């Protein structure tokens, strides 16, 4: 299993005061919000080193994610989450909502006292979906597999994944009738059980209805 390092962050911190690792969770789900995690590191976090066992959230079991998430938050100088709802995704599209959620996470960091304007953003992926949406753009470095290779982004992915999974489970507590969709295991993604339940019972308000045209 690939272990993320701080090599890229170390290079970026020679030119910037802070690095903000950013990753999204829930982009491809049929139901629920998309969440964007942001994890801030500086010189002190470099010196300390990332928590042992930190990985991209997709490479960890649910049990291991729950164990490492508080360690990731404690290691970071600061962390934050931004959200965009299923209704927003239907109205504005996933690309716009990814950017909106990231900007909300950055705004939360600013409210925590983090000088976001003196940071560089390390963004997982192959496309910069963030810069065009920022009123005052920050430097953004896009790196494929950053969630696998870069500790700050791996931490952001774990923080966002744990929060989103918890949110999907809490929805079932509030609305037990939604348990037919199997969100306790698929957390809104398109499993066979989830797709079959949509066909049999129809969508609920948490579904991204514009994504269901091939199912219903």
Short account of what is shown:
With 216 residues, the chain is α/β, with parallel strands linked by helices. It has 9 helices and 5 strands.
Proportion of helical residues: 40-55%
Low-confidence stretches: none
Mean pLDDT: 96
Describe the main β-sheet briefly.
Answer: 5 strands, mixed
Total strand segments: 5
Distance between the termini: 39 Å
> Strands of the largest sheet, in order across it?
3-2-1-4-5
Rg for CA atoms: 17 Å
Can you put this structure into words, describing what you see?
The protein has a five-stranded mixed β-sheet. It is an alpha/beta fold. Helix 3 packs across helix 7 and helix 4 packs across helix 5 (94-111). Helices cover 43% and strands 15% of the residues. The mean pLDDT is 96.
What would the keywords be for this entry?
216 residues, alpha/beta, five-stranded mixed sheet, 9 helices
Blueprint (SSEs and pairs):
Blueprint: H1 7-12, E1 18-25, E2 34-41, H2 43-48, H3 62-75, E3 78-84, H4 86-92, H5 94-111, E4 119-124, E5 140-143, H6 146-149, H7 151-174, H8 183-186, H9 192-201
Helix pairs in contact: 3-7, 4-5
């Amino acid at each position: 299993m690939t272990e993320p390092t701080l090599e890229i962050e170390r290079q970026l911190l020679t030119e910037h005061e802070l690095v903000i690792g950013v990753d999204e969770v829930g982009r491809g789900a049929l139901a629920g919000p998309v969440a964007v995690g942001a994890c801030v590191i500086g010189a002190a976090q470099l010196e300390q080193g990332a928590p042992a066992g930190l990985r991209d959230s997709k490479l960890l079991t649910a049990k291991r994610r729950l164990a490492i998430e508080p360690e990731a938050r404690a290691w970071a100088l600061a962390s934050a989450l931004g959200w965009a709802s299923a209704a927003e995704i239907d109205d504005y599209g996933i690309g716009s909502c990814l950017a909106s959620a990231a900007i909300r996470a950055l705004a939360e960091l600013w409210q925590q006292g983090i000088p976001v304007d003196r940071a560089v953003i390390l963004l997982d992926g192959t496309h910069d979906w963030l810069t065009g949406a920022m009123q005052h753009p920050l430097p953004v470095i896009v790196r494929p597999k950053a969630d696998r290779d870069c500790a700050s982004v791996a931490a952001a992915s774990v923080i966002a994944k744990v929060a989103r999974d918890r949110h999907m489970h809490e929805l079932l507590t509030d609305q037990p009738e939604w348990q037919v969709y199997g969100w306790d295991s698929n957390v809104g993604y398109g499993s066979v059980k989830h797709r079959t339940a949509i066909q049999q019972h129809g969508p609920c308000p948490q579904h991204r209805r514009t994504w269901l045209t091939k199912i219903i």
